[in-house]
Amino acid sequence: MAVWIQAQQLQGDALHQMQSLYGQHFPIEVRHYLSQWIEGQLWDAIDLENPQEEFKAKRLLDSLIQELQNKAEHQVGEDGFLLKIKLGHYANQLKSTYDRCPLELVRCIKHILYTEQRLVREATNSSSPVGGMMDSMSQKYQQINQAFEELRLLTQDTENDLRKLQHNQEYFIIQYQESLRIQAQLTSLATLPPADRQLREPALLSKRATVEAWLTREANTLQKYRLDLAEKHQKTLQLLRKQQTVILDDELIQWKRRQQLAGNGGPPEGGLDILQSWCEKLAETIWQNRQQIRRAEHLRQQLPIPGPIEELLNELNSTITDIISALVTSTFIIEKQPPQVLKTQTKFAATVRLLVGGKLNVHMNPPQVKATIISEQQAKALLKNENTRNDSSGEILNNNCVMEYHQTTGTLSAHFRNMSLKRIKRSDRRGAESVTEEKFTILFESQFSVGGNELVFQVKTLSLPVVVIVHGSQDNNATATVLWDNAFAEPVSVFRSVSQEISARAMR
User: Which residues lie in coiled coils (predicted)?
Assistant: First the structure.
């Protein structure tokens, strides 16, 4: 059911809250007469913090105004005449309000829709499993977007505090220079006759005492400002970690699991656009806070004041570096998996993507990605961060590809279009194990820098397990192996001895 239809059934305080969402900035009549059109637009696909998205927002504003004008033109009769005038007025009003800042219109409508959905959800106990699932998804998305808004406000707050700190510190330095000048004048009095010295010295001593007292007070104030700013950054980083955990450990892992099940004929895993927009918001917020912490460190070095701030800033810098490292390494993913049944001497394709590549300007120095095939044992050792030799388990032709940035979609990806497995090196098989039970994986590796070589990352990602065959007669058994693995593998695992774990469950 459309959200607006349900919103009109709200009562009491919920109805009052819903009505308070509207006003001159967005009349409730526009919501009513364009409800279907409004709820049909992809407002969440627009990144409010990206100025380059403004043209999308402008297009939505123009479409909204056109829809209003069309609705006005179709009004007939006496009541229709008044409504026609009113809707025409609203069209002009919205154009005047948002024409120079269309992203604010998107922000306004997103807030309205999220709030309406929350009010409807709170007022309705859904008994439908599907409805409950959709409500749960909507609620999760709302929580993610609310957390991003909180992060935006926190980051803006610390930016304002940092500017205030810088201004106060600059004034402190000026006054410190003044104290040095006064001291120099006092020193020079020694060369004057006693009468002249006695005449000028008291005023200079009084002035020095006043300035030094002010410097002492202001030094304590600056130290408090620095500590308060560091505490705010700690709070921001805690929320950043929490938000990143939700996006990477929940949403991205679920997408990978859907991708794995899609290999068994399940529903498509879905696009990456929303995930990428979230990851890019994370990257932008992390980088802004990292730059703020570096500026705070520069101010501390410029004017050292004894205290715990140096240790706090070192901890903050270490934490923010860990956070951005986790984000970059986790968002290097395989968008299009190679075939899980891989025949030698046969062309195959794959696509890898860096979800934060565009936001961090990685494409300014396009990284190269290398693909190699490794065994199940090598993959397990890699996942445990054990030292492994760089030996591959075979030879892949055309296994190097440069990542390309696609301006229209904002994606950074490498498309391996013509890979071919020239040969495979198998392990010693024991017992009745068949070649169609032996699993391998394609390892994709790359290295790139962020922020003008400030940070250099080595990233790796593993494909879903593949079984290598040399003849078409092996295809069915190989397919059975990967189907079984896809169905029962843990979402975070690449390899497992699935049959043994299923047997162990059955015995308990």
Answer: 134-168
Beta strand pairing status for 332-336 and 347-354? antiparallel
How far is residue 93 from each of residues 51, 62, 102, 109, 479, measured CA to CA in Å?
Answer: 23, 13, 13, 16, 61
Alpha-carbon gap, residue 348 to 428, rounded angstroms = 26
Q: Is the pTM for the entire model greater than 0.70?
A: no
What percentage of residues in the chain have a pLDDT greater than 90? 44
Total domains present in the chain: 3
Q: Which residues pair with 150 in a beta bridge?
A: none
Find the radius of gyration of the CA atoms of the chain.
Answer: 31
How far, in Å, CA of 376 to CA of 411, rounded? 31
Sign of the dihedral through C-alpha 475, 476, 477, 479? positive
Boundaries of domain holding 376:
337-488
Q: How many helices (H) and strands (E) does the chain have?
A: 15, 11
Same domain as 158, residue 37? no
- Domain limit, last residue, from 298, 327, 356: 327
* SS3 (DSSP) at 265: coil
Half-sphere exposure of 14 (CA within 13 A, CB side): 16
User: Rounded to an integer, what distance in angstroms lies between the CA atom of residue 420 and that of residue 349?
Assistant: 9
Q: Quick one: which of 41, 76, 39 has its CA closest to 57?
A: 41
CATH of the domain at 271: 1.20.1050.20
Same domain, yes or no: 120 and 142: no
Is the predicted pLDDT of residue 137 greater than 70, yes or no? no
Note whether 323 and 341 are same-domain residues: no
d(CA 50, CA 296): 25
CA-wise closest residue to 331 among 211, 413, 420: 413
Question: Which range (309-313, 329-333, 364-368) has the least confidence?
Answer: 364-368
